[in-house]
Each structure stands twice: as structure tokens, then as C-alpha cells.
Amino acid sequence: MMDCIFWKTFTHYFLHLAFPAVIAFVFYRSNWKKVYLILLATMLVDLDHLLANPIFDPGRNSIGFHFLHSYYAIAVYFLLLLFKGNLRIIGIGLLFHMFTDFQDYEFWCH
Fold first, then answer.
1. What pLDDT, on a 0 to 100 scale, did the predictor assign at position 110?
2. How many whole angstroms separate alpha carbon 74 and alpha carbon 7?
3. Helix or strand or coil: residue 107?
4. Which residue, 41, 7, 35, is CA-closest to 22?
5. What is 70-96 written as a DSSP string?
6. What global pTM score does this model have?
7. Residues near 94 by Cβ (< 8 Å), separated by ≥ 6?
8. Is the pLDDT of residue 2 over 90?
9. Residues 6+ apart with CB under 8 A from 11
10. What whole-number distance in Å separates Cα of residue 44 and Cα of residue 61?
11. Given 1, 61, 72, 94, which is the most exposed site by the fewest CB atoms within 10 A?
């Protein structure tokens, strides 16, 4: 069980902090540092967790629970992909964040 918790935590933070650098470098090589910072900034979407009680519950799926993690919000994040520039990058970051939270709940021990 401890092994599962370690890998779940490692994967969660790797996907939130390190993998966006890979996305930025591979798809936006000439501007990768700026894109990486934008992708990191999309983690502010987690501010909606502050409205929950408890703020953190390892057994709770964020997707569909918090309002910025709702299916309506995710639909808006998909719409951001239709724009160019920073809005598209924000959409990518938000959708990747949703994927990270989804896999964190669905694919690991809980």
C-alpha cells in the first residue's frame, strides 16, 4: 500500500510540475519558458479547493466536485483550444490539469 501511495503522489506532482515543461519544450520550443510558466499558472484552478470542507480529501475525486473542476468548466477549457496564443496555452494547461486530477483518482489506490 505504501508503494501505491508513493507512486500516486510522485505521478501527481510529476504531471503537475515537470510534465508541463515537456509540453512547453516539445510544442513551443522557441518560447518554452514563457509557456511553461503559463502552464504552471493554470494550477491556480485549484483555488476552488479552498471552498471545500475538508480542503483536501484524498478519497475525493476533484473532477465534478469543485466548481472549476466541473464538467461545465471543462467544456469551457475545451473551447479555449479554438483560440490562438495564450488562450490556447491556458486551455491546454487547464485540460492537462483535469487529466492529472482524473488519473490521480481513477488509476490509483484510494
1. 52
2. 26
3. coil
4. 35
5. SHHHHHHHHHHTTS-THHHHHHHHHHH
6. 0.92
7. 42, 45, 77, 80
8. no
9. 103, 104, 108
10. 18
11. 1
What DSSP string describes 38-54? HHHHGGGGGGGGGGSSS
Amino acid identity of residue 72, one-letter, is: Y
Neighbours of 56 (CB within 10 A): 8
Mean pLDDT across the stretch 56-65?
Answer: 87
Check whether 65 has a pLDDT greater than 70.
yes
C-alpha cell of 57? Answer: 480529501
User: What average pLDDT does range 96-100 have in this prediction?
Assistant: 96
Averaged over 47-69, what is the pLDDT? 91
Q: Which helix H or strand E contains 2, and what residues bound it?
A: helix 2-13
Q: What does the DSSP assignment read for 52-67?
A: SSSS--TTS-STTTSG
* Mean per-residue pLDDT over the chain, rounded: 93
- Looking at residues 53-68, what average pLDDT do you find? 89
